[in-house]
Specification:
mainly alpha, Growth Hormone, Chain: A, about 425 residues
Length: about 425
């Protein structure tokens, strides 16, 4: 692995942490606000929610590998700042369009697709920036801390979103996220104690060189690096996640009859689960190993979906909300537990000059799965039923776990 000059992370990492934490809070608000906008303000259904999620992730499928190669050519911090500002501006268009009464579902799709493009570029830079802030032996703890911040955002964000939607409506609630991205840009731009090495490859190479760089990232991700088994299992996991993200909100609103406030609290409980998972992830990894911790989390995700399905068999209202929240708690715990171990495994095996390409290649295929599955999940939910389609998500999560159980990955340990 190439050596890099590393500054003490106490200052730079702290600013990076707050940038991620605050923008994550805004994103959690917008996630519920946009789906509520589609379902309530624009009178859409699960199919429209599926197209919404697909539009947000489509840039990852179309441009992800190219963006990863381009980001590996440049310094990552300016990319993060610029894309945060762009995302703030794009989100501001939603309440502006609503205020002037020309909000429509096609317009929302266009804005969300552009927002997804900016997020793709930002993710490629930010995910590859962490190994420049902390040494290898502190990667898991650094990612666990970031996951903890994300979990807090997932806890507070939906609850705040439920209140904001009730008071301001869904369109104006999106504006809060715009301000969080401006805060993130300020935090990253004001880092003083971190320096980035020059690009390993000159930015002047042509299209053929760019394609070669893209292929280097793909070969590393799916070749002899040791990442392939986890990568394929994760692709399957994201198919289940796509179904869940599309159907939980319509399931709660339409089948369980929950309010925006109740749905906000349900997702807040998922954030609590993620926080607990992130907090205990290091301890669980020491006990079960990296592979064991990831397998455990995927089994718990499958169980969580089954618990969510049980909400239809209890009295409507707060009881149904509590059961749905219990399932979300399990799934949130699973995500909080798994992510830091997956990121540590990936980044520990990947050289610095391949970090952006490897991360973005894998992320692009993960998001590509969601692009393809999300509309199908929405159409199936409307045609077959929300509960029946959620059963498929539970089965997919179980399959992703089984793929690792029957492989040597179950014994992997990154200390």
């Amino acid at each position: 692995m190439s050596s890099l000059p590393r500054a003490e992370p106490s200052g730079a990492f702290r600013r990076f942490f707050w940038a991620e934490a605050v923008s994550g809070l805004g994103s959690a608000i917008t996630s519920l606000a946009l789906q509520t906008l589609v379902l309530v303000t624009l009178h859409g259904g699960a199919a429209q929610v599926g197209w919404l999620n697909s539009a947000r992730l489509l840039p990852y499928l179309l441009l992800g590998v190219v963006v990863g190669a381009l980001v590996d050519r440049v310094r990552r911090r300016p990319v993060m700042v610029i894309t945060d500002v762009v995302r703030a501006g794009l989100l501001g268009l939603i309440p502006l369009a609503w205020g002037f009464d020309f909000i429509s579902f096609p317009l929302v799709l266009v804005v969300v697709a552009l927002f997804g493009t900016a997020s793709l570029v930002n993710d490629a830079a930010s995910m590859s920036f962490v190994p420049r802030l902390v040494p290898r032996d502190r990667l898991q703890r650094a990612h666990a801390r970031l996951d903890g911040a994300s979990a807090v955002a997932q806890t507070a964000g939906p609850a705040v979103a439920g209140v904001l939607i009730r008071i301001l409506g869904a369109p104006l609630s999106v504006l809060v996220d715009a301000f969080t991205y401006l805060f993130s840009a300020l935090m990253v731009a004001s880092m003083k104690d971190v320096s980035e090495p020059p690009s390993a490859k000159p930015a002047g190479v042509g299209a053929r060189g760019l394609v070669a760089e893209m292929m280097d990232g793909a070969r590393w991700a799916y070749g002899a690096s040791g990442l392939r088994r986890l990568a394929l299992s994760t692709h399957v996991w994201f198919a289940g996640q796509a179904v869940l993200l599309v159907l939980v909100v319509p399931y709660g609103y339409r089948q369980l009859g929950l309010s925006a406030l109740q749905m906000g609290l349900v997702f807040a409980v998922a954030g609590v689960g993620a926080l607990i998972g992130a907090t205990l992830s290091t301890r669980l990894g020491l006990r079960l190993g990296t592979g064991g911790a990831i397998i455990c989390s995927r089994v718990v995700s499958a169980l969580g979906v089954l618990i969510m399905l049980a909400a239809t068999s209890v009295p409507a209202g707060w009881t149904a909300a509590a059961v749905l929240a219990a399932g979300q708690l399990c799934h949130g715990w699973a995500m909080g537990t798994s992510n830091s171990h997956e990121m540590t495994f990936r980044q520990a095996l990947t050289p610095d000059d391949l970090q952006a390409r490897t991360n973005t290649t894998l992320r692009s295929f993960n998001r590509g799965v969601m692009v393809l599955i999300s509309p199908v999940a929405g159409l199936l939910g409307d045609a077959v039923g929300y509960g029946e389609t959620l059963c498929a998500a539970a089965a997919i999560f179980a399959i992703s776990a089984l793929m690792l159980v029957v492989s040597p990955f179950r014994n992997v340990r990154i200390d």
